[in-house]
């Protein structure tokens, strides 16, 4: 078992402490519901992935998985660079100290303000998703009298099965279809300021099979060569996507970065030898952040309904939408554990629900947990990616929870909890117009 695997065990089920700090202490200090991230594990995961993969392959963290500035800073300490998709993510990456040459910007509907910010910051590359966007980059770069490196995002003709959500091989808003790119003709002279000099492909997410990563990588590296031959562009940078997963549900197994390395490193070696100087990029969000986060909720009430046990907690799916069930009709449970320090008792099936007025607010369904009672802390594990920022936190006006990063045995608040005033402040009360008197008199309302 590698050092990294050992650390993964550290935060797993039934552990009542994180880096020596009791969960109960964190809950009391910061309140619940609460997201807690293991900063040391974030850094170790980024380092471990980098070390397992070819030295020429740079790991870019997809901030969409968890955009907290301190989460990214912990990953950066492990050597991760930044892949961003909005103005705020760009500013977050810069605030955490990422140099512009270690930032790429992608997304299918970039605004002019976003493109302008990329140009002004001097990011390594804008990943361009349509020919119209390329025209926009050309115009904005020309207005600034400079050139901006652009990677063409290609929507591959092939979808490789094994990803829980495939992006390629389908009509998609992402990227430009492979056949259109290959038929685009010479792109070298067409743009004076948009410096098209690379290829980006993202095949899908939640991949837990190293063989699928290998097939994707083989396809993408070959496609990059075909695009370069067909369009004449340089390959300054090739981004092979990623989509490495973490196990959430029963029967899913850890993806071992060493297995991934064993399979893709020879491909990268051959490509790097044939293309000296080309930057090779892998993007990763979930794999880097997923295992390092725990959603901590406190049971408010425990009761039975028609033969099933319910623990109603202070946090729910408005902070953890993924727990509802990602793309599946059958509810499957994230790994979970009782975090309170007490004699637990034998597991029995529990439904853990949140405070929302919808039956969909089901965090765990018939999950094997010790007998729960009010005041207990329950942790939803492997929850560091696509948590609050990918959840409807404003539903029922609860707002977003506090977020804490534990690093070197010390806990730091890295996002404060939304307070009622935070939610009410942006709203404006408009006095309703007076109804016309004839309606009032007649009793009819408009
Ligand atoms: C283009 C692109 N890159 C990176 C990511 C991050 O994926 P993951 O969190 O699976 O690593 C996504 C997620 O949807 C994506 O669409």
UniProtKB/TrEMBL annotation:
This is Type III PLP-dependent enzyme. The modification N6-(pyridoxal phosphate)lysine is found at residue 64. Keywords: Amino-acid biosynthesis, Decarboxylase, Lyase, Lysine biosynthesis, Pyridoxal phosphate. PANTHER family: DIAMINOPIMELATE DECARBOXYLASE, GROUP IV DECARBOXYLASE. Pfam families: Orn_Arg_deC_N (PF02784), Orn_DAP_Arg_deC (PF00278). One of its GO terms (biological process) is lysine biosynthetic process via diaminopimelate. Its cofactor is pyridoxal 5'-phosphate. It comes from Streptomyces radicis. Residues 416-446 are annotated as: Disordered. Residues 35-384 form the Orn/DAP/Arg decarboxylase 2 C-terminal domain. Residues 49-289 form the Orn/DAP/Arg decarboxylase 2 N-terminal domain.
């Amino acid at each position: 078992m590698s050092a990294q695997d050992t650390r993964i065990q550290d935060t797993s089920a039934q552990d009542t402490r994180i880096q020596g700090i009791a969960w109960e202490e964190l809950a009391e200090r910061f309140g619940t519901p609460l997201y807690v991230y293991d900063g040391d594990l974030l850094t170790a995961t980024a380092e471990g992935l980098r070390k397992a993969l070819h030295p020429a392959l740079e790991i870019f963290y997809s901030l969409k998985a968890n955009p907290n500035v301190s989460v990214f800073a912990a990953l950066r300490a492990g050597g991760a660079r930044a892949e961003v998709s909005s103005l705020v993510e760009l500013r977050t990456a810069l605030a955490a100290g990422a140099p512009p040459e270690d930032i790429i910007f992608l997304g299918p509907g970039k605004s002019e303000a976003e493109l302008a910010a990329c140009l002004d910051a001097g990011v390594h590359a804008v990943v361009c998703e349509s020919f119209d966007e390329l025209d926009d980059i050309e115009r904005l770069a020309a207005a600034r009298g400079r050139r901006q490196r652009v990677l063409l995002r290609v929507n591959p003709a092939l979808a490789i099965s094994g990803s829980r959500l495939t992006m390629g091989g389908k009509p998609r808003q992402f990227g430009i279809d492979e056949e259109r790119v290959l038929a685009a003709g010479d792109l070298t002279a067409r743009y004076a300021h948009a410096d098209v000099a690379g290829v980006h492909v993202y095949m899908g997410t939640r991949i837990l099979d190293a063989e699928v990563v290998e097939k994707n990588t083989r396809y993408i590296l070959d496609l990059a060569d075909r695009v370069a031959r067909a369009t004449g562009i340089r390959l300054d940078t090739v981004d092979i996507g990623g989509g490495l997963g973490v196990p959430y549900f029963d029967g899913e197994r850890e993806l071992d970065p060493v297995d991934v390395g064993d399979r893709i490193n020879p491909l990268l070696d051959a490509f790097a030898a044939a293309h000296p100087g080309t930057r090779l990029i892998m993007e990763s969000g979930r794999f880097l952040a997923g295992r390092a986060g725990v959603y901590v909720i406190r049971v408010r009430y425990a009761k039975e309904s028609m033969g099933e046990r319910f623990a109603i907690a202070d946090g729910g799916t408005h902070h953890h939408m993924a727990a509802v069930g990602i793309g599946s009709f059958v509810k499957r449970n994230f790994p979970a554990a009782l975090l309170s320090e007490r004699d637990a008792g034998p597991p029995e099936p529990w439904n853990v629900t949140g405070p929302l007025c919808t039956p969909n607010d089901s965090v765990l369904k018939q999950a094997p947990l010790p007998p729960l009672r009010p005041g207990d802390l329950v942790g939803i594990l492997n929850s560091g990616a696509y948590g609050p920022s990918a959840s409807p936190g404003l539903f029922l006006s609860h707002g977003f929870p506090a977020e804490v990063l534990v690093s070197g045995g010390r806990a730091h608040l890295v996002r404060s909890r939304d307070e009622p005033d935070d939610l009410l402040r942006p709203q404006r009360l408009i006095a309703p117009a007076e109804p016309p008197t004839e309606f009032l008199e007649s009793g009819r309302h408009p």
